[in-house]
């Protein structure tokens, strides 16, 4: 990303110009290393108003671009760790990975990174031009690794962190797959019964001209509504789905949705532990890599992928900027249990915050793992109860009048 700056040199003379950096903080660091005191730093935005450079054009292009999966990002970090540890020059390493990768988008990205490295830019600055491929957390740790001369350790930390993140995501998806399939099956069954099955019985009951029980009348009324307005129901469901997605895409909607997710019975507590584990592990990686505390909190706030928790972490960062210590702002956030707060306090006193945060992450990951293993067992009774209620209403509504008609026929 390019920035325009205004700064004063040691003689007090005003200096203006532009430079490439990953963010404003990095740009300020570059200027101070040059002996300049920054007055203002502003990102340079493209002035082109062509369709492809417009916001809509960018969204359209990104929709058709091949995505870079987390698995491919993990492989990239592993390969970069092996290549840098072996002492292979960065240009050769990036060029080799660009030639061997199967993902077209990643190949083009690495080719562009290689070109920028040839022009003299550092790796983190080149990667920052492709935030759709490389998350901010990855760019920040690479930047720290470059400045400390420990780039291979940075890629090793990233590969371990991303592997843990991938493992957690897979376990959550596996645990929620069963209830999702059951709910989808129930919705499909409800449509099929009301549109195709119940009308057949309705025509049969109407020929006998007898008083029907309440369950049967309810089923017949529901069926008539579905048959008459099934297209309206489908449009309403599709409209509701896209309306909710649009609302969640807004800042206010995302904040409310992310807060609501954590209050869902059974699932909410699992999501909370999972995100706290993600927070602790990513924060540990950032501190271990030497990222400043306030910058680490800003990056970790994005890594948790939850607007409600992101807001709390940003409040922690503001507390740090006011001069408060980490244990105090962690206690004020209301996110952590007393045991975790005690470990953070001990880590702060001993200077081993990153080590103890790693233990916190492992603690939350163990809790999440146990909850995920028992999730299906806890959801099954609820699902069985819902299916049983549907079957009971169906049986009462269809078989009760049939039994009455059989009894009347036999009595006759």
From TrEMBL:
Disordered: annotated segments: 1-20
Gene Ontology cellular-component terms listed: plasma membrane
Protein origin, superkingdom: Bacteria
GO biological process, alphabetically ordered: protein secretion by the type II secretion system
Transmembrane region(s): 178-205, 225-248, 382-403
Compositionally biased region (Basic and acidic residues): 1-11
Sequence similarity: Belongs to the GSP F family.
PANTHER family (alphabetical): GENERAL SECRETION PATHWAY PROTEIN, MSHA BIOGENESIS PROTEIN MSHG
Protein name: Type II secretory pathway
Organism lineage: Bacteria, Pseudomonadati, Pseudomonadota, Gammaproteobacteria, Alteromonadales
């Amino acid at each position: 990303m390019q920035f325009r700056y205004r700064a004063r040199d040691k003689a007090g003379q005003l200096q203006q110009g532009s430079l490439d950096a990953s963010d404003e903080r990095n740009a300020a660091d570059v200027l101070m290393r040059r002996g300049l005191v920054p007055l203002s730093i502003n990102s340079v935005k493209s002035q082109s108003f062509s369709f492809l450079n417009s916001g809509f054009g960018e969204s359209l292009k990104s929709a058709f671009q091949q995505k870079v999966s987390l698995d491919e990002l993990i492989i990239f970090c592993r390969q970069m760790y092996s290549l840098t540890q072996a002492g292979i020059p960065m240009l050769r390493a990036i060029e080799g990975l660009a030639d061997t990768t199967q993902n077209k988008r990643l190949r083009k990205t690495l080719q562009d990174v290689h070109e920028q490295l040839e022009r003299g830019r550092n790796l983190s600055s080149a990667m920052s031009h492709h935030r759709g491929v490389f998350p901010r957390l990855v760019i920040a740790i690479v930047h720290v690794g470059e400045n400390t001369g420990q780039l291979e350790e940075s890629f090793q930390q990233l590969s371990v962190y991303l592997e843990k993140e991938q493992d957690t995501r897979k376990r959550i998806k596996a645990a929620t797959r069963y209830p999702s399939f059951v709910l989808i099956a129930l919705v499909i069954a409800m449509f099929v019964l009301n549109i195709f099955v119940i009308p057949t019985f309705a025509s049969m009951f109407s020929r006998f001209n007898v008083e029907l029980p309440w369950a049967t009348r309810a089923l017949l009324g529901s069926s008539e509504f579905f048959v008459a307005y099934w297209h309206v129901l489908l449009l309403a469901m599709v409209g509701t789905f896209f309306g909710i997605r649009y609302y969640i895409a807004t800042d206010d909607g995302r904040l409310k949705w992310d807060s609501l997710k954590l209050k869902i019975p059974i699932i909410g507590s699992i999501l909370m532990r999972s995100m706290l584990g993600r927070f602790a592990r990513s924060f540990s990686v950032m501190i271990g890599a030497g990222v400043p505390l306030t910058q680490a909190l800003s990056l970790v706030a994005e890594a948790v992928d939850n607007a409600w928790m992101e807001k709390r972490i940003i409040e922690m960062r503001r507390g740090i900027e006011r001069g408060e210590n980490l244990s105090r702002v962690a206690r004020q956030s209301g996110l952590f249990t007393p045991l975790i707060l005690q470990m953070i306090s001990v880590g702060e006193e001993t200077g081993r915050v990153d080590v103890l945060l790693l233990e916190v992450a492992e603690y939350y990951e163990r809790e999440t793992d146990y909850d995920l293993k028992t999730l299906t067992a806890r959801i099954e009774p609820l699902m069985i109860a819902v299916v049983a209620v549907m079957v009971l209403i169906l049986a009462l509504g269809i078989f009760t009048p049939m039994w009455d008609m059989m009894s009347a026929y036999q009595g006759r």
